[in-house]
């Protein structure tokens, strides 16, 4: 039986029933293959250990991802690669094929923290942070969710007030944020807070007096990822810490839309990897004198899962086309997250069943992917919230309140 941690390139080829690989141009294929090779050689051999230990060498990995050019790769300028969104989607697929926690490290850095600075920051803020973040020399996090404000960020309690009058007056920040990826290791936190003029964004540097963080432990899901609580006790910030172009909830929600795009393709990688693992196992697991892949019930499972994964890829490809053309709409990204995360969960659970008892160990990926996807199902817009986004698009009626 082949080692389950080895990349099963034969299985990947067999799973491409529609020949989607043939639609990639030479640049796309080079990016995909480069990241796949890095993931195979540098990430896959260690992921079971990181998951079991509930930790991740995030700073070291950030530097490696920086050298690879995937941090903020879809952003222009400031030492960012300026790749097409569709190429960023390919990167997310290959990284999440190893583990959702690794893709979260990359997407929180590039599509939340870096994107917020790139879209809403001053030129000084961009010059200070983006080149270092693109190289992985500085790590960012994104502080929006609170213990009592998850799906309803408009009810956040974190607030910032001016200490004095005039646009150059300091800000005083007070409150807390929860479930923050990269929180305790971040050099800069993008923090969203209520003010007298609505929601505003601030850059809070690590080491600022009154800013503390603590990690969330005993996680069952997304264990190869750092998850933290951020606390702000009357933190004094200069006026220059405010993101000048971020006004209202539209700004952080725009960042979430950007990050969800990566999720749509990322979870394809998790589902594809789980299915490839199950297909390889079924070919080599002998029962009743022959491989279990020869049994009708197993072939039915494999066929249904393969079609599901290909449908997920089609959704991701269509959204990437729209994103490349600057035509994508938020409800379309909600469609992708709604459809692909749900489908990925179903694929990983059923793939685990093909592995039998072996599937409950960390030697094989399907169940690890499945428990990770339970978090992806919830974060950056719960499945229920995306249901309501689609419902509003279909009916013209908002059902949130």
Automatic annotation (TrEMBL):
Domain Acyl-CoA dehydrogenase/oxidase N-terminal: 27-137
Family matches, as Gene3D superfamilies: Acyl-CoA dehydrogenase/oxidase, N-terminal domain, Butyryl-CoA Dehydrogenase, subunit A, domain 2, Butyryl-CoA Dehydrogenase, subunit A, domain 3
Enzyme Commission identifier(s): 1.3.8.6
Domain of life of the organism encoding this protein: Bacteria
Cofactor or coenzyme needed: FAD
Domain Acyl-CoA oxidase/dehydrogenase middle: from-to ranges: 141-235
Ranges of residues in domain Acyl-CoA dehydrogenase/oxidase C-terminal: 247-394
UniProt keyword Transit peptide present: yes
Signal peptide coordinates: none
Reaction equation(s) it catalyzes: glutaryl-CoA + oxidized [electron-transfer flavoprotein] + 2 H(+) = (2E)-butenoyl-CoA + reduced [electron-transfer flavoprotein] + CO2
Keywords: FAD, Flavoprotein, Oxidoreductase, Transit peptide
Pfam families the UniProt entry points to: Acyl-CoA_dh_1, Acyl-CoA_dh_M, Acyl-CoA_dh_N
EC top class, as a word: oxidoreductase
Family, as annotated: Belongs to the acyl-CoA dehydrogenase family.
Protein name: glutaryl-CoA dehydrogenase (ETF)
């Amino acid at each position: 039986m082949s080692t389950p941690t080895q990349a099963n390139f034969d299985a990947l080829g067999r799973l491409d029933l529609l020949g989607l690989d043939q639609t990639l141009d030479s640049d796309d294929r080079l990016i995909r293959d480069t990241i796949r090779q890095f993931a195979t050689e540098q990430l896959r051999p260690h992921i079971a250990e990181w998951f079991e230990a509930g930790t991740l060498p995030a700073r070291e990995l950030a530097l490696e991802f920086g050298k690879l050019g995937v941090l903020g790769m879809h952003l222009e300028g400031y030492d960012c690669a300026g790749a097409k969104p569709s190429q960023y989607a390919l990167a997310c697929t290959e990284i999440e094929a190893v583990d959702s926690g690794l893709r979260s490290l990359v997407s929180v850095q590039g599509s939340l923290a870096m994107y917020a600075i790139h879209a809403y920051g001053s030129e000084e803020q961009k010059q200070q942070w983006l080149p270092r973040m693109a190289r992985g020399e500085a790590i960012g996090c994104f502080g929006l969710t609170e213990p009592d404000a998850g799906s309803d960020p408009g009810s956040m309690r974190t607030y910032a007030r001016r200490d004095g009058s005039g646009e150059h007056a300091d800000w005083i920040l007070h409150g807390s944020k929860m479930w923050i990826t990269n929180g305790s290791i971040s050099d800069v936190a993008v923090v969203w807070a209520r003010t007298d003029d609505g929601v505003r964004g601030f850059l809070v540097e690590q080491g600022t007096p009154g800013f503390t963080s603590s990690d969330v432990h005993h996680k069952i899901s997304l264990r190869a990822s750092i998850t933290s609580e951020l606390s702000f006790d009357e933190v004094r910030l200069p006026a220059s810490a405010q993101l000048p172009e971020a006004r209202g909830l539209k700004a952080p929600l725009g960042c979430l839309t950007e990050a969800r795009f990566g999720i749509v393709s990322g979870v394809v990688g998790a589902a594809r990897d789980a299915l490839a693992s199950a297909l390889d196992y079924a070919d080599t697991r002998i029962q009743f004198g022959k491989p279990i892949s020869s049994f009708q019930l197993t072939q039915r499972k494999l066929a249904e899962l393969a079609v599901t994964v290909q449908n997920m890829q089609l959704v991701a490809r269509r959204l990437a086309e729209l994103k490349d053309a600057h035509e994508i709409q938020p409800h379309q990204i909600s469609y992708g997250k709604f459809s692909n995360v749900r489908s990925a969960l179903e694929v990983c659970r059923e793939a685990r069943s093909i592995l039998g008892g072996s599937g409950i160990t960390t030697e094989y990926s399907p169940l690890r992917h499945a428990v990770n996807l339970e978090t992806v199902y919830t974060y950056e817009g719960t499945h229920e919230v995306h249901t309501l986004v689609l419902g509003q698009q279909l009916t013209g009626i908002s059902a949130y309140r």
